[in-house]
Every structure is written in C-alpha cells, then in structure tokens.
Amino acid sequence: RMAGRQRQSRRRAAGRVLLPALLLCLCCRAAPERIRYAIPEELGRGSLVGPLARDLGLSPADLPARKLRLSAEKQYFTVSGETGNLYVSERLDREEMCGESASCSVSFEALVQNPLNVFHVEVAIQDVNDNSPAFSKAALDLEIGEWTLPGARFPLEMARDADVGSNALLTYELTSNPSFTLAVKESPDGSKQPELVLERALDREKQSSFQLVLTAVDGGDPVRSGSVQVRVNVTDANDNAPVFSKSVYEARVRENVPAGSPVLRVRATDADAGSNGRVSYCFGNVPDGVRALFSVDSDSGEVRTAGPLDFEEKSTYSFGLEARDGGGLTAHCKVQIDITDENDNAPEITLLSVSSPVPEDAPSGTVVALVKVRDRDSGENGQVSCELRGEAPLSIVASSGGSYKVVTASALDREQAAEHRVTVVARDRGTPALSSRAALVLEVSDVNDNAPVFEEAAYSAYVAENNAAGAAVVRVRARDADAGANGRVSYWLAGGSAGAAGAAAYVSVEARSGAVYAQRSFDYEQCREFAVAVRAQDGGAPARSSTATVRVFVLDRNDNAPRVLWPAAGAGAGAGAGAGAAPFEVVPRSAEAGYLVAKVVAVDADAGRNAWLSYELVQAPEPALFRVGLHSGEVRTARAVSERDAAKQRLVAVVKDHGQPALSATATLHVVLAESLQEALPELSERAAGGDSPAELQFYLVLALALLSALFLLSVALAVLARVRRAGPPAVLRCLGAQRFSVAGAAFPADFCEGTLPYSYNLCVAPGRAVAEGAWLPPPPPLPSLPAEELLGGEPCGKRSPSSSAGAGEPPAD
Length: 814
Hints:
Elements: H1 2-27, E1 34-40, E2 48-50, H2 52-55, H3 63-66, E3 69-71, E4 77-79, E5 86-88, H4 94-98, E6 105-112, E7 117-126, E8 139-145, E9 153-155, E10 171-174, E11 180-186, E12 192-198, E13 209-217, E14 225-235, E15 243-244, E16 248-254, E17 262-265, E18 268-269, E19 280-283, H5 288-293, E20 294-296, E21 302-305, E22 316-324, E23 330-340, E24 348-354, E25 358-359, E26 367-374, E27 384-389, E28 394-398, E29 403-408, E30 419-428, E31 435-445, E32 453-454, E33 458-464, E34 472-475, E35 478-479, E36 490-496, H6 499-506, E37 507-509, E38 515-518, E39 529-537, E40 545-555, E41 563-566, E42 584-587, E43 596-599, E44 601-603, E45 613-619, E46 626-628, E47 634-637, E48 648-657, E49 664-673, H7 677-690, H8 694-727, H9 731-734, E50 743-745, E51 762-764, H10 788-793
Parallel strand pairs: 1-7, 8-14, 16-23, 25-31, 33-40, 42-49
Antiparallel strand pairs: 2-5, 3-6, 4-5, 6-7, 9-12, 10-13, 11-12, 13-14, 15-18, 17-21, 19-22, 20-21, 22-23, 24-26, 26-29, 27-30, 28-29, 30-31, 32-35, 34-38, 36-39, 37-38, 39-40, 41-44, 43-47, 45-48, 46-47, 48-49, 50-51
Helix pairs in contact: 7-8
C-alpha cells in the first residue's frame, strides 16, 4: 500500500510540474536554428514535449516534402511524421542521465530536407522528487562515556538524496529523548551535518544504552524521508574524539592515471592513549561509484585511485571520510578531488545527412552534407577544427553547435568526375593533437549539358555504281559525354545538296546505329557525287544536337561499251539492208606506206580506265596492206599500194575499252583503190550491180547524178573564167589568195566533246576528189585562187587533160 501511495503521489507531482513545463515550451524560443523545451523527468512514453514542426515554421502539409527527422546519439525522443510534434520515446531518469549535476538537458539535431538545413534542439530535464533520502548504514553505533559533560556534540552520518535543488534540501529529526537532542551544523558548501547533543549526564549504571531514530526529510512535494537507527552505548574513560587537521581536504589529479596512484592523505589525531587514541579511517556515507574509484587506507589515511578516472564522465568528486578511535568516538572531514582533463578523446564525426547524388548544374554554395563534430574533452582539448582532404570542388563551413556544412565550392561536371571522394578531417587543439577522419562519397547526377559530337566533321563514302538498293554506304558515329537518356544518340537526315526531302531519295539513315543505306541504285553517268547532312540528337530535355556532312562519291563501273561515231553506226552490217549507207574511202594506187586512209572515231560514256580506248584491225582482205593506230584510230597503209591489190577492200576494226571486263564495238570501212573518183566509178557500179539491195543501187545512181552535175557546173565555171581572163581579172578576184587547196574540218555531233577523243581529226579532200557516199556530204570547198592558164589547163590529182599542151613526159602539176 505504501508503494502504491508513493506512485500516486509521484504522478500528482509530475502533473503539477508538467503544466508549467508545457507553458514554458510554448514560450521558450532561442536564437535562429535553436529550439529549447523543458519537461519533467519520468514522463511516460508518448508524452508530448512540444510542437517541433510549428516552432520550426513548418506546416503539416510541408512535412512529407521536408522529411523532418531527428539525429542524436541516443533516441530519447521521436517526432511524428503527421503532426510534427515531439514526443518522449524512452524513460527519462534525470539522476541516471546527469547524476549530481545541477542542470540536465538533452541536445540533438532536427534535420529537414529540400532545402537541407539543421536545427539544434535542447530539452531540459527538470528534477522530480522521485528519490528518498538514504543513509549508507542501517544503524549508527555511538559510544559515549558516562563522564561526558552535557552539551557535548557527536557528529552523525549525513543522509544522501539523489535529487537536486529543493528536492535535495534535507532536514533532520530525532525521536524525543530527555538525554539527547539534535543539532544541525551547516557546512560552507551548504550541506547540513546532523549532530547528537548530550543534554544531561549519563549514568551507565542506570542506563547503559539508548535507541534513537534519526529521520532525514527532503524539501520536495510531496516530501520524502529516510531514517536510520542510532544506538548509543554508554562507556567509560574515552573522553577525546579524533580531530582532523582540516575540515576539507582538496586535491587535483589527472584523468587516466593508473589504479593505485596516490591522491592525498588525511590525518586525524586523538588525545587519548592506548586503544582509545588509535585512529582508523573509512568512508562515510558515499555513493558506490566513489568506492569503485577511490580507496582509503584505514591506518594511514591515504586516499588512492581504485579505478579509471574519466573527466568526461565526472570532473569533481566530493565525499566524506570518517576517523574512529578505539573507544568508538568519530570525526568527519570532507574530501574534494578535482579531475583535470587530458586530451584523451579524439573528435567524433557524425554524418547527419548527405544529399547524394547532386545534379551537376547545382549552383556554387549548395549544401550537400551536414556533419556533426563532437570532442568530449574540454578547453582547448575540446576545440575542434574541420577540413576536407581530397581533390573535389567542395568546401566545409562551420555552423552553430559544432555542426559543419559541406557545400559546393565551384561548378560540378559529371563528365570529368562522376563522384567525388573526400575525407572529413577533424582535429582538436590538444597536446598532442588528436584527429579523426570520415569518408564522404558524393555522387554527381547527369544533366544534359553536352551535345553529341561526331567522330568526324565530314564523312566521305565511295559507292560503285549499279549498287543494290539498301546497300550500306557508310556508318556515322557521334558520342555524347552525358549518361543515360542524355547520352543516348539517335540519327536522321537533316538535309543535303538537294534538301532533306531530296536527300531522302538517295540514302536513308538508321536512327540507332547511324548506318547510312542507299535508297536506290546509283548511275555514275547521271550523278557522280552528292552530299547529305546527318543530324545526331540526344534524348535529354531539352535535347541537344549536332550535324555532320556525308559526301557520297559514285565510282564508275565499265557498264558502257564504246560507241563508234565514224564510220557511221550500222555501217558494218555487211551486205544487208544497211550496207548501202556505208561510207567508203578512195585510196590512190600510188599511195605510199603511211598514207592516211580514214580515222575511226569512237567515244565511251564511262570514265577513267573504263573510257581508255584502243583500236585493232580484225578483218581485211589484205591484212598486210592496212594498219590502225592503237590509240589514235587512224587507218593508214602499211605498205605501198600495188596493182595486184583488189580494188575493193572491206576493213573491220574493233574498238575496246580498258574496263574489267572489257567492252568493245566494231567499225566497218570500205576502201576503193583508184587514182580518181572517175576511175572508182566502175568499181562502184560493179558493186551496185552486184548488190542485192535496191536501196544500194538507188544510192549509187543518185551519187552518179550528183557527180555529173558537179562536172557540168565545173565546165561552165571554167568557160566563164576563160572569158574573164581575156578581159583581165576583175578586182574581186585580186583579193583572192594563192591557196590552191581547201581544207575543210570534220563536222561532229555535239556530244563528241566529252573529252574521250584522244586526237582531233580533219578530213582533207584534194581538188577533183569528192566523197563518194550520199550518206554524208561535206559543204563544197571554196574555189581556189589560181591563174586562168592553170585553171583552164590544170587537172586534179596530177592527171593531164586531153587539151593540155604539156608533154607526155612532164610530171603532173601539184
């Protein structure tokens, strides 16, 4: 029942403290980025501490995006993700957390994202009177001699209360007894020492012992108390109690000294002799933690360390020592030991939050990580400086409360470094200095800041003509330094020498691979080259692109046979229907070797070696009589013409190109061996008579009529000139030159000028000679300018006319 009443009184006390604490939470504000709350200890789990989100300026709607969370070494509190309120998550025992410290608080960080920020929160833990005063012993034994005079004081053990403040203010009460009263002696540090005061002389024979109860009461609400039994034995002859040389002993010792190291020595003396003057030392009412760290020699009074001392756990120890003589009299003193700090704790680095990955276009100064650095040492040993080590565009700046922010110092470039590895180095100012390190890895996310780049600015492709549609032409390749969709490149035609639509008629490009394919078969004779523009574009948003030019050269193939221009095509058809249109050449029988008979003219629509032509005589009645120039196509006599040679010669020449395989064409040339056209007419007549074609006969008849008409006109002209000669030459004839022969250039169709004719060719006709074929007649030559005598008496080709006055032995005129 007493335990139940104590729990109920504790709840009522907590309720009375909670209300002002909550009011204090609503009013308590600190500097920016720092929030303070105050709550009583021993609150149940789930108890409200304060509206953290509202105090940070966050609305409930912002909480999912801002991701409010707590960062602490030990999670005493939790924050609601829906309301943002701060709640208790673990049992809070102030005495366990802070010990005898006058103030007790828990500090932690509240982190929010988007943007990243940190706030320092401090929750003060207020003491609740949940600990009763306690004595270290169940009973206190005192021995008082019967000779002791009234008014003598005997110090009693002080009670200890783990609470602080008013809850630890103790008052003492003693059960009523006519022989003893209670007095309280207040020490300089504020503690109260109870003393038993003898009110009247004792008589051991009347009463040899007394049973008293000492009660310690604290100042809490409700009050708590603890009691101890005081047993007084009345003895004889020990009338001097031990006396310490000092009431308070002070010492200073370094932390981390080995166990057994001397700290100080206390000394008490007793004026009595014998066993009554023999003094022994022991601890008074001290916590168990003191007994674990220190020991006292019972004979010498030397205090030594018994365990490791840690300044960070506790910097000052204060406890009482008791000196007792052999007669049971005691004396008490106070020992205060201060622990000096040593630099035995390296800084502790905690990465509170890391925003990874970071986009590469993040501006300079963007917070990418929050770092908490703590050094448990004090003074200069606990002063910490931080730096970053590593090649990275990052810097670290100090924030409040031992926090640091890692920010970008310059622009990031994922293409140069996809991640940055740096080391956070924290170093204190102790001697020697201690440091610690923590690795920080920051990934950089890609942004579409690079356009595709072609491996070549311009591509050249060579495709042989007559290719198959769909054949591969060339493959273009562009690289994008970005990653993912930003670096995924696709291709298409962007234009060309005929525009995008015109280029699509020639080639196509595969979007993924960049392979360019022919859309149709190319013809070198129609199109020798063309250019298209290929665009490469990435998949970023917005997309980036670049363009390259692809120039396609069509290579020639030997797909065109030579075409014979002279003699006319079809002349070599033989004696068939087309034979009547075949041209012929008249060669005088007096022609020497090398006489130019004719020139075979041929062209080839191909180019290069495919258009290089060679000529060869493949058929002739007299193979040794004629030869043809290998490259010129000129047909000349290989030897002098003799009387034994047939009057009619049919020559067949083949024209070949140099392609692989070679293509060829044939040309047929008819040659008549005669001194003049008149002499060749019988041969032509025989040829016409022997022909099987009426068209051939008709051709020769027309030719004969044309020749007769020409002779008639020549006779009339000569007669006119003879008469004019008698009257003297007119002025119009004086301007005529002395040229005896006319040279008429050969006439060719317009398509002869393609450059495949290796030589120019002129057809030369001597006076008196005429083309014997009606298929191709050159324009009549101009009249030669000759004296009248030569005009009347001359004979073409050196033959004398019947009316000539020259002798038979004279050589013919030139």
